[in-house]
Amino acid sequence: MFAFIIRRTLASIPVLILVSLIVFFLMRLLPGDIIDLIVGQAQVEVSEETIAELRLQYGLDEPIYVQYFNWVGGMLRGDFGLSFRSHQPVIDIILPRLVPTLQIGLTALVLSAAFAIPFGAICAARPNSVWDRIGSMLTFVGASTPYFLAGGLLIYFVAFRMRMLPPSGFVLPTVDFWASMKHTIMPAITLALSLVAILIRQARASFSDVLRHPYIRTAYAKGLGETRVLIQHALKNALLPIVTILGLQLGTVFSGAVVTETVFAIPGIGRLLVDSILGRDYPIVQALVLLIAVAVVVATLIVDIVYGILDPRASRA
Amino acid sequence: MYSRRQFVKSSTLGLAGGLAAGSFAAPSLASTGGGVLKVALTADPISFDPHLTGSLQGRGTTQAIHDTLFGIDESGNLAPMLVTEWEQPDNKTYILRLRPDVRFHDGTEFNADAVVYNINRILDPDIGSIRSGEIKALDTIEAVDNLTVKIALQYPFAAFLFPLTDVSGCIGSPTAFEAHGKEGAALNPVGTGPFKLVSYSQETETVLEKNGDYWDEGKPYVDRLILRPIPTGSTRLVELQTGGVDLAEDLPLQNIASLGDQTDIVVSERVGFRWEYVGFNAKDEFPGSNKKLRQAFHWAIDREALHHAAYFGTGAIGYSGILPGHPFHDTDYQPFSYDTDKAKKLLDESGLGSAEITAYLRPEPVKQRAAQLIQSMAADVGVTINLEQLDYASHRAKLRGGELPMDMHGWWGYRPDPDQYLSVLLASDGSYAKRHGYSSAEMDKLFSDQRAETDPAKRRAMFREITRLMNEDAIYVPWHYSSDFKGISKKLQGFRHAADSIIEYKYISIGG
């Protein structure tokens, strides 16, 4: 197992180098830079000398490959640079923004898995039943409702009409745990909606596949009830593809965070990423994309490890 | 639609700078104390360094912490602030007398040296302040005595003092600037203003508290100010409706309509925050190089229809670049009407036959709606407009490169003197003028004449002449003045809707 982890970690290094190159040059291929935005936002006459001075201060006057090696060199020394927009160290900006995104994302993942896996199992066990139809409908609705609509509706009904939860913002769990939970529920449900759609489908497919095996028929034949068959016999085998999908949903969590964090005014990294791309804040975008790449690599690694635990054949391969 | 009853227009055409009536009168004696004022901003202030901040939210928050040298009164004229009296011995010299007994939040004294330090900081290339362009006419600034500053200009510039009503005129403690350095100053602001910064958490909240030693006796009224950036308009509105905030910036038009007959919220509208025009690039390679084509748009645009369809009847129809609310604005100036025959005749005279032109749009829903209407109006007279979408930075890059054949975005942001933006747009050395390929000796003369003139009445007439020539050359075809909207809880008193949309927190109190 240990050698497996080492092997996988080494294999991810070229991936990260490639990601760093792509994000660095893609950002610079976008037309317009931070100075255009500073000047545009202020709507004042800015002289050519001031613009040249600003380019110098932001290090944008150097050849692009020099800028790349400066950045990579800085990172290897643990220096991610200063944000273009706020002049604060990139790390100081990104780290606090991770908590809300992770808290909401993990809550959404847990909520959707807890709901979708049993539901998918029931759908598979009783095909074409009422449950199965509700399941397909949920899949359809969940997959086709955009986050901003789901979020907006939740805010309207839950926060405005029923006044049950605060409409926006975030509180750290270390500051006030219950307030933090209250701020987590609506964005987590919004995110969970599309996760549920994906997971119900996957769970149903995976269970119906497993349920066709002869050992399931044997289990029924020896007199076990449906619940025991599903949990004790089918679950472990059905879980393999579901875990894979769940790990890959990290991407959905990040992309969904972009919208939910904007709708609910949550200071997370999804919103930070979009604001920084639109704001041409290169250092933040570069560091964030790398961070997300690392997270996806790690998540895939964890999936593989869990896979190995669930199915020992996988880690021996 | 919303009910007109609770829709307070702060400034309508002709009522120059007239402020909201009724519920926003001066605070009553019963409600002058304390409380927490919670405000929903559209974006994070990001920096509190007055000389480096750029956004409206940055400028607004910075001005709660730092007083400006001058204020603007309700008629749009210069008013005392940190400067109590000023005189102009000749058109290149100003003598400013400063308010005595004012202290910075760090306890150091506000004086002439501090003013000189701050103005020089703006001009320091190492600081790289984008405000340097606003005070480029400055030759020397010196402290005559502890409370007197003398400013000498390189050339006459009548609008010189006006930028000092905004962040260029914000005075921070020189001791603090020196102690924190350029990067540190962003989050460690020390001014003389009504509020002090307590804590800041990016994209979460900015907390300010009352400056107990504020020079303006009795103000500010509230003890604490919490500013929360909430990017989505409908969320800001729900926060306002559920009491999560007491004041919300920039309520989008479609949300205002959804307010219905809610009685505990008032929407304040200030006309003249933005000036909408259709801009043309007059460089040879673009269709806009044809003057008759440009002039045809004066008649081809149905301003009334745009006013209703794109702006739901808010704001005001516009024919010039002088914004309503400004003393130089003239309501009677209405030289154009919707007349497709005249437009077609001008197009015939243009000799172009048919014209095709591309307009790039930024992601702003109202503008996109307006652009589609203008597109169909132009089609009616035989001009094809192709609309293309860009993000904000890409749009700026195209604008900087002078590559916009047509510009549908106009100018945003009220400025207390029209020279501050019209010169950018019209004078030959102005960046927008260059990007639009515009240069006119006659226009340049008008600008240098009004700059040398100290009598406001004469300047007003000169700006009328500038407007006439602007419309004659038709690089910018004006069509609308749009508004700034703020949603206000009815329990607030003393809210003044400033023309530049910056909230003056010190006048606001929380009543019952």
TrEMBL record, chain A:
Residues 98-303 form the ABC transmembrane type-1 domain. InterPro entries: BPD_transp_1_N (IPR045621), MetI-like (IPR000515), MetI-like_sf (IPR035906). It is found in: Cell membrane. It comes from the Bacteria. Coiled coil: none annotated. It is a multi-pass membrane protein. The chain crosses the membrane at residues 12-30, 104-125, 137-159, 179-200, 238-264, 284-310. Signal peptide: none annotated. Pfam families: BPD_transp_1, BPD_transp_1_N. Keywords: Cell membrane, Membrane, Transmembrane, Transmembrane helix, Transport. Belongs to the binding-protein-dependent transport system permease family. This is ABC transporter permease.
